[in-house]
Amino acid sequence: MHTTALRHLRRIHAGKVRDIYEVDADHMLIVTTDRLSAFDVVLPDPIPQKGRVLTEISDFWFRRTTHIVPNQLSDMGLDALPLDPDERLMLAGRAVIVKRLKALPIEAVVRGYLIGSGWKDYLRTGAVCGITLPAGLELASPLPQPLFTPASKAPAGQHDENIDFAEVERLIGPALAAQVRDTSLALYAFAAEHARARGLIIADTKFEFGLDAEGRLTLIDEVITPDSSRFWPAPRARSPHQARVDGEPGVQDTPWRQLDGWLWGPLAQGEGLAARALRQLRYPYAVIRDLALGDVNLRAMGLVYNTLLALIPLLAFSFAVLKVFGAQRDLEPLLLEFFRPVGEAAPQLTARVMSFVNGVSSGLVGSVGFALLLWTLMGTIQKVEDSFNYLWRVEKPRTLGRRIAEYLVLVIVGPMLLVLAFGLGIAPPLMITALFIALYRFVPNTSVRWLPAIGGGLVAGALWWMVAQVFADLYTHARSITIVYAGFALIIAALVWTWAGWLILLIGVQVSFYLQNPAYLRLGLVELRLSAAETEDIALRLMLLVGRSHVQGARRWRNEGLARALRVPGIAVAQVTGILEQAGLLAADEHDAWLPGRDIDHITLQELLRVVRNPRSTLVDHDAAKPLPAVDALRAELQRASDEALQGRTLGSWVAANPE
């Protein structure tokens, strides 16, 4: 949840993470959203369920520190508010009603370790917020004693600034400043001891305070959360190089995360030239990140193995197809072009392969027929499709019938088109680029638009020829200095070039995918794990859309269309439709478009919710699990309440009541 807009309450403030609504003269409603604030800037992409986690952590500390200082929590519950049912569901676990207090204009920061802006101050002045420290301290060193290092409260979009204690006294008065300092240090000492006993270090944290009507100091906002504190595993405190130098609590400090902050941070917002350039850099960044962190390279190496198995059958089959048209000799220049990067050995390698192909074509094909060749080729092309589908986040491959028909067309028509293009004198770079574009457009088992396919093809074609030139020079140089291994060099060079070719092909797939799905640029190849609430939400929304299209006779939905309409990742839609299809609530037609699995007047909403709430795992022996009567009773009670609310309602009646 990124933003809130409650219908019956007036919003009086929207902070970096929290929205505040007026309840009455003495109370406010604080809603913790899933917005991510880093370096005092709100980033555009929320973290699902982050607000609920922060709220639960703060409540934990609020209720355990009342012996030190009163806090903002009130006795009022959400039941007292005029909220609609959908709003109550949205606010569950992330909203609290608090006392209305006068906030102090400072942030009370306590540091137990030398890190972040404190480390910068120490390097520059030997002190932190005017407090002189011993010489020779290192990054992430434990401080001799925790320090109260206050900061000013900056407006949204600006950085908080460290201030000294004299400035705090000027802002709120000496007596109150001393009380804030002593209370903050006491809170930190209590929390740090609690965390240390459980294997965690609280390196530093931030508190905020307000005054009630009687002028009593009161703890407000949030307490010891990942948004306001730095947490380290206990051993990490003894390894300064593992600590973050200038990070924001809650954001991992890796080179990729730092680049992520630049490319999606405030500098990349707006319409200026620099902002536009940073947004364009997201594309090469995403490709390079996936190569470094994903298994794209492993897939390229796997395709090298498949190439060794399929190269001769492919050439033999192509030779046989071209022989029908008297064009079999035109295969040789194409093969020579492929091996050109290995330099002067290309003709020799081409001749050897062609000699073997001739033998296979006249021997194996004549005696065994095309069956073995086709089986080998089909398996290899399926591996290529699997890699394409992986990068396109497509979980469902082609059906067996489509696979046989479309692959057969590819291996028959493909060689003829290549020979035709070569005979027309089309330059090899253009021919290779056109081949890439065709593969990107038609191989993934999803709808790929022409412009992304062309973009990926142009990038892959350019990379192919640049790498080919560099590889040819390197191979020539390597042979000149390793004469004794010249025979092996040819084999190794052919394998390395094949791997490079597949890697370039997959890079082009990534480019085409990101051009069509820029929303994935930041997510990359990270495995998506939906919560139960998210699965239920997506299932309800997509079943409503599928039901509507079925009733209205409109065009059927496919996964990519549902993802765009629902504004969720395609892989999330694929996961949920897989659950619904397995349960018989959805069925796919011959074009992989969705329709209801049976009459929508016989699909109850109770059944729909049961399916998405209770997908059975094959990894857990549910029958052997120890029963807990209290848990079973609670689950049964919740199920009864849900069944009563949905009694008699079907997908058909729901669609009829919500036609638009």
Quick recap of the structure?
The chain has helices at 50-64, 85-91, 117-125, 165-172, 174-196, 255-264, 273-293, 296-324, 331-338, 346-368, 371-391, 400-423, 428-442, 450-481, 486-516, 532-552, 559-566, 570-582, 605-613, 629-645, 651-657; strands spanning 10-14, 18-24, 27-32, 36-38, 41-43, 95-99, 102-103, 106-113, 127-128, 131-132, 142-148, 151-152, 200-211, 217-220, 229-233, 586-588, 594-596. It is of the alpha+beta class and 660 residues long. A hairpin with a 5-residue loop joins strand 16 and strand 17 (594-596).
Helix content: 40-55%
Radius of gyration: 32 Å
Query: What is the chains' assembly state?
Result: single chain
What would the principal axes of the Cα set say about the shape?
Answer: globular
Q: What is the number of beta strands? A: 17
Mean pLDDT: 80
Extract low-pLDDT stretches. 236-253, 361-369
- Percentage of residues in strands: 5-15%
- Major sheet, described briefly? 7 strands, antiparallel
For the record, give the distance between the C-alpha atoms at the N and C termini, rounded to a whole number: 24 Å
Number of helices: 21
Structural class: alpha+beta
